[in-house]
């Protein structure tokens, strides 16, 4: 009886709760689990794989009924421990054809490629990238460069991103190319910082400098100008993760192991009239 008893706990691991991008997923996951009589325990892994392994060890020791990971587990040792534990696992916010168990995903490479196609379609020629140094953000940069066809000025900031880091990133990018027409950001928070710094430098957005973000944070639609961004359905990720775990607890196998939810590029004021002629330094 003790061996078969349910803990009624699900553990979720996120890199950080200081940024808005994962909060909607955590909130919807919490609500969906609560409706089934389960509680969520939350751990912050940071962006270092070594910390993630230590956190997983602690979680496995508590024997939750399920584990939700933000991103794909990169540690071979962590993967072995999860497989040996036999706890249902849902990886999220990244794509893999070899998930530990189940994965709810979208392609960061395709996100970057789509953003590049968007700016190419507007005739933009000189673009810079402000990106976090984490794996997923750098994947989006890789996808952008693959579609763009050449290297572009890049400012890499430590994750998690912030408004302050966005302001600093624009300074770094303009030092590399004073004639930039657009800046592609790995988060809406960085894009917010770019907007603030552009205004401080007397640059009009989007007339002088177009700006795009990622994550569709709640504030993005209400900025002046509002921020063009990439929307990922975070609440749906949380609800689906809860459903998959509850099904597994009832002995119902998932119809598939990979659930690709895709993404949507949302055009707003920060790029609606992107400059199509070269800015002079």
Give a brief rundown of this model.
The chain is of the alpha/beta class.
Structure write-up:
The longest helix is centred in the C-terminal third of the chain and has 16 residues, at 234-249. The protein has a six-stranded parallel β-sheet, with helices on both faces. A four-stranded parallel β-sheet has the order 7-6-8-9, with helices on both faces. It has a two-stranded antiparallel sheet with strand order 10-12. The N and C termini lie far apart (74 Å). It contains nine helices and twelve strands. It has 281 residues and is α/β, with parallel strands linked by helices. The model is unreliable at 277-281 (pLDDT under 50).
Keywords:
281 residues; 9 helices; alpha/beta; four-stranded parallel sheet
Q: Terminal Cα separation, in Å?
A: 74 Å
Instruction: Note the run of SSEs as H and E.
Output: EHEHEHEEHEHEHEHEEHEEH
Helix content: 25-40%
Total strand segments:
12
Proportion of beta-strand residues: 15-25%
Structural class: alpha/beta
In the predicted model, the low-confidence regions spanning at least 5 consecutive residues are 277-281
Number of helices: 9
* C-alpha-based Rg, rounded: 20 Å
How do the strands line up in the largest sheet? 2-1-3-4-5-11
Mean pLDDT: 91
| Overall morphology | elongated
Largest sheet: 6 strands, parallel
Which SSEs are present, and which pair or pack?
Layout (H helix, E strand, L loop, with lengths): L8 E6 L8 H13 L3 E6 L4 H13 L4 E5 L5 H10 L3 E4 L9 E4 L2 H14 L5 E6 L2 H14 L5 E4 L5 H14 L5 E4 L2 H13 L9 E3 L16 E3 L2 H16 L8 E3 L3 E3 L2 H4 L9
Parallel strand pairs: 1-2, 1-3, 3-4, 4-5, 5-11, 6-7, 6-8, 8-9
Antiparallel strand pairs: 10-12
């Amino acid at each position: 009886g003790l061996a078969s008893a349910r803990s009624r706990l699900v553990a979720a691991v996120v890199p950080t709760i200081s940024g808005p991008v994962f909060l909607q997923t955590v909130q919807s996951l919490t609500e969906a689990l609560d409706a089934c009589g389960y509680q969520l325990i939350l751990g912050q892994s940071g962006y270092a794989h070594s910390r993630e392994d230590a956190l997983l060890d602690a979680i496995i020791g508590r024997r939750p009924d399920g584990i939700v990971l933000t991103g794909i587990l990169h540690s071979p040792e962590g993967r072995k421990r999860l497989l040996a534990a036999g706890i249902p696992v849902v990886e999220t916010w990244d794509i893999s054809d070899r998930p530990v168990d189940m994965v709810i995903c979208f392609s960061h490479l395709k996100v970057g490629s789509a953003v590049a196609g968007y700016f190419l379609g507007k005739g933009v020629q000189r673009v810079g990238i402000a990106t976090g140094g984490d794996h997923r953000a750098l994947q989006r940069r890789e996808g952008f460069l693959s579609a763009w066809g050449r290297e572009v000025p890049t400012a890499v900031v430590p994750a998690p991103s912030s408004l302050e880091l966005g302001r600093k990133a624009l300074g770094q990018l303009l030092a590399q190319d004073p004639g930039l027409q657009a800046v592609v950001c790995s988060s809406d928070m960085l894009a917010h910082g770019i907007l603030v710094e552009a205004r401080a430098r007397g640059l009009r957005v989007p007339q002088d400098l177009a700006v795009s973000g990622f994550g569709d944070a709640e504030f993005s639609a209400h900025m002046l100008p509002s921020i063009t961004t990439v929307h990922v359905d975070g609440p749906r990720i949380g609800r689906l993760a809860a459903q998959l775990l509850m099904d597994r607890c009832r002995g119902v196998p998932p119809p598939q192991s990979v659930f690709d939810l895709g993404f949507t590029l949302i055009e707003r004021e920060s790029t609606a009239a992107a400059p199509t002629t070269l800015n002079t330094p």
